[in-house]
Write a structure and sequence with these properties.
Layout lengths: L1 E3 L8 H12 L4 H6 L4 E2 L30 E9 L10 E10 L4 E7 L4 E4 L3 E4 L2 H19 L6 E5 H10 L3 E5 L4 H15 L10 E5 L1 H9 L6 H21 L2 H12 L4 E2 L3 H13 L4 E7 L5 E6 L2 E6 L1 H12 L90
Parallel strand pairs: 2-11, 3-8, 5-12
Antiparallel strand pairs: 1-12, 3-4, 4-5, 6-7, 8-11, 9-10, 13-14
Length: 415
């Protein structure tokens, strides 16, 4: 477990949003007015529709859903969408926990390529759940795979993040020489989407990055340790952003809040936000703790039908998340623990279920390899693999593209 403070915090994009929401919720009537700028999206779903199952599991290795009034879990998503009505994936997936029992805010990051079960879609990367069914299916996927009780979410997209960074005056980043080329490739792609002139980084070393440059820096995947290191870059950017918010002071704080709120979407209504914020401050909650799941020793790079996935023992990972959130202990894989490993040849149940082609789109193909690791290259259609028998034909939307230029839209996906 990593304890975070103002100077050495390592907080991802959504943790920034959540902490700001909790902070502003505890101040004045002016803040209540400011909360009207947040896009409210009511989550009209039953516990069953959200995958919350309070029954006792039949599998002794499967943890039960825990219901604790002193612990509130909220899904935090960072999407790659470029417009409000665009189908998108969630490049950042977290569970934010307000733990009144242990007086902490806990942030549980879930790796985007984690191989999970998605209701109605078979098994796939967890990042695709949001694309298939929006926040409702994304929450359900978290609940069903990790035995959680999440009912609400907060969402921010990367293009909004660019505007937030610019509004706060940019961030100072030490750019490594080997990162410059990839950073500028991300900048160029983003500028093309927005119809802007690329704001290139011309040198390495410490420098003030604009919103476009900082978002590009956080999106680098092909330098260093792939997605793991990309997550670190995102945290670096947003830790610095968080420090700026923290140091704004009472005079500038209302302005900072007014710059951030228009870019936030949430299912949490204003009254609940005020209540949560009051609980955080009245309870003296000042510590933020973070973990990333699955744990390294409970995960394995694997290839299924030529596509890269991060395989994990779902029951073991659910147990580790519960240990962190509910038991307030640092989760670990003990020497004697039995961790299910990825099969050499996936069975029909383990292969991603391919259903009928959804209307209006074409099934995209995974082709991007997060280089710098041993992760395999993803290809369009791997040969020599027997196609599983197709039985169901739902009419859900198509699987998102994992390339720079997806097929389903005229705009390439970010990530």
């Amino acid at each position: 477990m990593k304890l975070l403070n103002n100077k050495k915090a390592r907080i991802t994009i959504i943790s920034i949003v959540s902490l700001i929401l909790f902070t502003i919720a505890a101040v004045s009537g002016y803040t209540y007015y400011q909360l009207s700028q947040v896009k409210y999206a009511k989550m009209d779903a039953t516990d069953s529709e959200l995958g919350i199952d309070s029954s006792v599991p039949s599998d002794p290795n499967e943890p039960a859903v825990e219901m604790d009034e002193d612990i509130v879990n909220i899904a935090l998503f960072g999407s790659d969408r470029r417009s409000a009505d665009e189908q998108s994936r969630t490049d950042t997936i977290m569970i934010a926990t307000i733990d009144k029992k242990h007086k902490k805010i806990k942030l549980s990051s879930v790796m985007r390529d984690t191989y999970v079960k998605i209701n109605g879609r078979g098994s796939d990367k967890i990042t695709h759940a949001y694309f298939f069914g929006g926040p409702k299916l994304a929450i359900r996927t978290l609940n069903e795979n990790f035995k959680m009780d999440i009912r609400d979410y907060v969402l921010v997209d990367f293009f909004s993040l660019e505007k937030i960074i610019d509004a706060l005056g940019g961030v100072m980043i030490d750019v490594k020489p080997e990162e410059v080329k990839s950073l500028n490739a991300c900048v160029e792609e983003q500028a093309s989407h927005e119809g802007k002139k690329p704001d290139y980084v011309t040198k390495s070393g410490p420098q003030l990055l604009s919103g476009m440059q900082a978002v590009g820096y956080g999106r680098i995947r092909n330098v260093g340790n792939g997605d793991f290191e990309r997550t670190d870059r995102q945290r670096t950017v947003l830790t610095l952003l968080f420090d700026k918010v923290q140091s704004a002071g009472p005079i500038k704080f209302p302005y900072v809040v007014s710059q951030l709120l228009p870019y936030i979407e949430t299912s949490i209504d204003k009254g609940t936000m005020l209540k949560l914020g009051a609980q955080v401050f009245a309870g003296g909650i000042t510590t933020v703790a973070q973990e990333r799941f699955p744990l390294t020793k409970a995960a394995q790079d694997t290839k299924i039908n030529g596509i890269y996935y991060l395989w994990t023992d779902l029951n073991a990972t659910a147990t580790h998340i519960h240990q962190f959130i509910y038991d307030d202990i640092t989760p670990a894989v003990a020497a004697g623990d039995k961790i299910e490993r990825a099969p050499k040849q996936p069975t029909k149940q383990q292969q991603p279920t391919q259903t009928t082609k959804p209307t209006g789109t074409t099934k995209p193909v995974e082709t991007t390899k997060p280089t710098g690791t041993t992760k395999p290259v993803e290809t369009t259609k791997p040969t020599g693999t027997t196609k599983p028998t197709e039985t169901t034909k739902p009419t859900e939307t198509t699987k998102p593209v994992e390339t720079t230029k997806p097929v389903e839209t005229t705009k390439p996906a970010i990530g």
